[in-house]
Amino acid sequence: MSDINGALPTPLLELRNVTKIYGAGDAQMQALAGINLSIYPGEFVAVMGPSGSGKSTCMNILGCLDTPTTGHYLFQGIDVGSLSRNQRALLRRNYLGFVFQGFNLLNRTSALENVELPLIYRGTTTAVRHQLARQALQAVGLSDRENHTPGELSGGQQQRVAIARAIVTGPSLLLADEPTGNLDSARSVEIMELLTSFNRDKGITVVMVTHEPEMAAYAKRIVHFKDGLIDTDHQQGGH
Amino acid sequence: MFANALLLALRELRRNVMRSILTMLGIIIGVSAVITLVTLGGGATQQVTQQIASLGSNLLMISVGKRMGPGQMSGAAAFNLGDSEALFRDVADLVAVAPVAIGATTAIYANENWSTNVTGSTEDFFPVSNQQIAEGRLFNASEVRVGAAVCVIGQTVATKLFRQQSPLNTRIRLQKLSCEVIGLLKSKGQSTMGSDQDDIIVVPLRTFQRRIAGNQDVNLIKVSVKEGADTERVKSDLERVMRVRRHLATNEENNFNVLDMKEIATMLSTTTQTMTGLLSAVGAVSLLVGGIGIMNIMLVAVTERTREIGIRLAIGALEHEVLLQFLVEAVVLSSFGGIIGIVLALSTALALSGLLQVPFVFQGGIVIIAFLFSATVGVVFGYFPARKAARLDPIEALRHE
Questions:
Q1: In terms of domains, do B125 and B240 share one?
Q2: Residue A51 is part of a domain; what is its CATH number?
Q3: Distance separating alpha carbons of residues B163 and B153, to the nearest angstrom
Q4: Of A179, B150, B229, B268, which has the most beta carbons under 10 Å away?
Q5: Is the pLDDT of residue B123 over 50?
Q6: Neighboring chain B residues of A96 at a CB cutoff of 8 Å
Q7: Mean of the per-residue pLDDT values of chain A
Q8: CB–CB of B315 and A94 under 8 A?
Q9: Which residues contact B308 (CB under 8 A, 6 or more apart)?
C-alpha cells in the first residue's frame, strides 16, 4: 500500500470529524463521536466492532443513505452533506453498490429482473440491460438461475444475486453490511471470494462491516470501532 | 422516464397477480353493482312513463259507488246513457265522453273458447282509451245507435280464439249474441296496474245492454278532457252535474267517484322513482364496500411495499420515480377493473332487462360516476401509502416490519 500512500492520490472518500446524533433532548444518543477516515480507490476495508459502536451508522453515511450531524463526508471530493435527497440518490445510482445482510431482493421477482433493477433507473436500453445483467449473474456463477425468484434460491444464492445487482452498474464503491451474517461458513467463504475477486480484478473499492474475524481476514485493511470512535486502523498483508 | 415507470409498474402487477386481482375485484363489484341497479331502475322508470303516455291524454274516469277507503266502494245505483250525454252537454272543455258497461263472458269461436270481459261502449271509447285499429275498422255511430251485432277485439283474444288465422269477417259467440268481428286493435301491452290491455272485446253499448247484460246500466264513464284545460275545474263540474243527475241533497256525500288517471300514473311513476332511488342507494353501498376492499388490500400490502420502496431508494431510485410507478400501478388496476366492471354491468343489465321485461336504457352518467369513484379510491389508496413510504429514509423503509 506504500505506493498508493506515497503518491498521495485523492481519497475516494473521506470522513472529516464526522459526528452523528440520534434523537433529541434526554433521549439523545451519540452514534459517532468524531470520525476521521480516508479510503483510497482499490482498497478493501473491513469495519469491525461490537454492537452499538457506530459502524452501521458509519456505513449508512458512507452509503449516502444518511448525513452527518456535524463534520463533512467527501465522496470523490464532493461534500455529501450539502446535497439534496435526490442528488444523494443519483450518487448512489451512479457510483455505489449495496449488499445487505438480509439480501433485500424483490420478492417473486426473477434473479435477472432483480439484477436489472438499478439499470432500469439508469435508463439503460433493454438490450444492453439484459446483456449486463446476464454478465453480472455469470460473474457470480448463477447463469443457470436467471429465472428463479428469491424464494426458489438458497441464502447463498440470494446473496450472490444481491452482489450481482450491486456490481452490475460498475460502481466505484461497494458497501457490504454483514454480507455473510445470515450464511453458514462454506457459503460465507464463497461470498468473500466473490468480493475479493471484484476488488482485485475490477478494482472496485469494497467497504464491508463484519463481526467475524475470519471474514475480516480477506480485507487489506481493518478498521475497529469502539464507542463511536475509531479504535484501531491497520493494514494487513492480504489473503 | 414514463416508459420506465410503466415497465416497473407492469412487472410489479404481474408478480403480484393475487393482489392485483383482489384489488380489481373490489372495483369490479362496486362498479358493476351500481351500474346494473341504476340502469334497471332507469328502465323501469322509462317503462312507467311510456305507460302513462299510452293511457290517453287527460283521461278522467267516473265510477259508481262511494269511496270508503283504499280500493273499497259502497254499492250505489249504476249510471245510464243519459248521464254520459248530460255530462258531454253541460261540462265545458270535454273532447269526448264514453259510457262503458262491462260484463264477464265466454267468447266462443269454432272449438275455441276464452273467458274474458266484454265491453259495451260508443264509438268514442276508442279515442278516449287511446285504442287504435290494426286491421279492419272500428264500429261507427249508426251501428252504436241501432245496436248492431259487431265487435272489435284485442290481440290477446284474437290469438286465443283464432291462433294464426285472421279474425276479420268471422262470427264469434258471446252468450246468446253472435257477432261479426269487424276490427282488430293494435297491441297496447300491460297497463300500469299490470292487467293485459289486449284482452278486450268491444261491442256497441246498446248491443251489450240488450243482448248480453239485459239492463240499461253503465258502470263507468270515461271522459277525455281538452289539452291544456284545468282538470281540477273539469273534475268539480263533472261532480256538480252528476250530483244533480243523481238527485243528491247538499248534505249527502257523492255516491260516485271521479278518478284522474294521470294522477294515478304520476303517483306510480313517483313510486318507481323511489324504487330507483333505493336501488341506487344499494348500489352506492356496494361501491363503498368495493372501495373499502381496495383500501384493505392496499393497506395490507404496505409493509411489503415499504421494504420494496426502501430497496428501490437504496439502489438509487428518486422519490418521484417510485411514486410515478405506484401511480401507474394504481391507474392501470383501476381502469382495468373499471372497464371489466362496466362491461359486466351492461351485459348483466341487458340480460336482466330481458328477464324482468324492463326496457334497457343506457345511463351514461352513472357509468362515468361509478368509474371515477372507484378509480379515485384505487389511486388514493394505492398512491398515498406509497407516498408516505417514499418520503422515509431508505434505511427506515428497509427496516419496516
A1: yes
A2: 3.40.50.300
A3: 13
A4: A179
A5: yes
A6: 316
A7: 91
A8: no
A9: A106, A107
